[in-house]
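Title: Prediction job returns without error message
Component: structure pipeline
Severity: low
Priority: P3
Assignee: unassigned

Description:
Job completed but the reporter wants confirmation the result is attached to the right record. Sequence as submitted:
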Amino acid sequence: MLAAGMGTRLRSMVDARPKGLIEIDGETLAGRSVRVLREAGIDDVTIVAGYCAEQFERFAAGRPGVRTILNDRFATSGSMASLARALDAADADDSADVLVLESDIVYERRALSAILASAASDATLLSGRTGAGDEVWVCAPAGQLQTMSKRAADIPSIAGEFVGITRLSAEGTRAMRRAFAAFVARCGHERMDYETDALVEVAAERAIATVLVPDLVWGEIDDERHFARVTGQVWPSLQEFRNAR
């Protein structure tokens, strides 16, 4: 779970708190993700913290199977630097798949069941158009990731929106780390995004499938508008699904 960011666009609402520790109805975003992951059979969770890392350390301390690692350069690096640290700590060269999630998303259980059920070695989850704003649009001819961008006009076609949940095989994680190492050597810094940069680069050399759930209920919280959408539309729908089970 990538949770090192500073969340500057939400500072007026959450003060000195990482976005993943925003609470809605008494449950944090990260806490809900851990709960839903466990319901899906995933008990080993690594949170990459950075900004206010001690708050995530306290969060993890009360949850067996949850640990934190630190991206101490969170202020000058991108999300791929956090992912690389997590993969290094998890020794992802073994045969286990890795599920990469962003800490500031809220999603229904189908998000996990869909990505876990994919027969592809490496896959990333897409939704239909949410209208949330600040979307990452994905181009995926024949269901294979080709490119993505926040500017729809920059890509040839739109298969869906990037959700922020990706499954990587052992070879997929190695390819991501190679792409990151090459980026740092080439650019001299670690400001590489894991999705629009590293994942797209890896997709040019190995197949990254896209798993589309057109009516997926989910939301990301990056700013006040996102927060209003999640609390007013997404969260109530998720509670309805939970109560219907």
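Comment from assignee: result matches the submitted record. The two ends are 26 Å apart (CA to CA).
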